[in-house]
Amino acid sequence: xxxxxxIALSRQDALRRQxxxxxxxxxxxxxxxxxxxxxMFLEYLAKPAATPVEKVSMVQDYGVLRNTAVGPISxxxxxxxxxxxxxxxxxxETRDGQRFTRNGRLQLDLDRQIVDTNGLPVLxxxxxxxxxxxxxxxxxxxxxxxxxxxxxxxxxxKLVRFEREQFMTELGGGIFxxxxxxxxxxxxxxxQGAVEESNVQSVVEMTQMIEISxxxxxxxxxxEAEHERQRNAITKLSRLS
Amino acid sequence: MRxxxxxxxxxxxxxxxxxxxxxxxANMTTTGFKRQRAEFQDLLYQNQRRVGxxxxxxxxxxxxxxxxxxxxxxxxxxxxxxxxxxxVTDNALDLAVxxxxxxxxxxxxxDTAYTRAGSFQINAEGTVVTADGYTVQPGIVxxxxxxxxxxxxxxxxxxxxxxxxxxxxxxxxxxxxFPNEAGLEAIGSNLLLATxxxxxxxPGNPSAPGYGRLVQGALETSNVNIVAEITNLITAQRAYEMxxxxxxxxxxxxxxxxxxx
Lengths: 241, 261
Hints:
The structure holds 2 protein chains of 2 kinds. By secondary structure, chain A is an alpha+beta fold. Helices cover 27% and strands 30% of the residues of chain A.
């Protein structure tokens, strides 16, 4: 008898998590290379114990879909900033192995290695960190990812792409991990002195938020109506007896 | 609800953004000032349903999982080292760098600082110093009877002494370039310090390949683009508002819940 309440509850539970995803999109409106996310929903058939024959259709949040569209590229004038045009990723070295990022805000660390904003070394095509030699002048990075200074070539940035980009997991700080094998990304162009901005469209997120809020309230109404119906039933049935 | 704290991180980030923009606007007319930009990073993610986990006995797998982020954090506030405009002042000791490179300044404690603000003066001993009285390297002394000072494009300082026809070379100003200019640390008063992130200074003569040309009688204005700053300010304000909307919407949803009978 309580099934309608549980159905509405499953929707409300999912809506709360959807709100978290929208909130995260809006918070990261200005995070370089951030990809906006959407919650996907699925009908979930449950067979409650009280009704052995019929199945009840619930809602389940099934997955988060990442919009992998390239964000707008804005010029920064910093020689170590790179924006990627295309579906490639930069490869960085972590303690747990290679990880991938599109945030090209690069810098030099204590050992003069080229690192990302998290301080993780960016790898070249030989899977080695790139070190800028002492006393070298300004750095140039060409469209194919070749990094060089006035003292010659420093290395070529390893650019990779993935067959199934949606399978990548965010680790925070713009870093992704995946079990998929990395493939070479010859189609990806490196733009020096620019960064890729977040692809969040604030208007879309705002309308999403309104929708979530309203749907949440509608479900609440439904729970209340059901509650009322049950109370009425109990009152009327008890009067008859 | 998590979106409450996510909205908070968003508002905090935009506050930092507004602070950075206001500092740029405040330094709009500061000689040699380079505008800054706040940069953000997404926070860690929580897995509600792991990517690639099996969703049935038949071995079907979850294609994307439910990962919910925890918001945003400030990653860095970095300087944008674009060339500022050159403004003619006709003051013989006002020097502007047109291109790459920083003037090297000796601080009172002996360390070297770097600056793009070339509004120099001569102190009581005839040494070329900054507006704060710090010596401009390599410590050029202009004789008291000099009537004219010329600094050419490659940094050579020549003076013409009273009664002489031939100018006399009294010094050579060198510029320093860095592998990563964005890594320099600002210490105020238009001065910057080298850091491990910037790399070591590479001194060289102005006008040499990779070095800017010196322009006498001009100053480099700040590279703050006021129209861009104001539009950034509007964007930041709107982003702040949107994040506060996230908080009020979350509040509404929680209110709905608390009204359950």
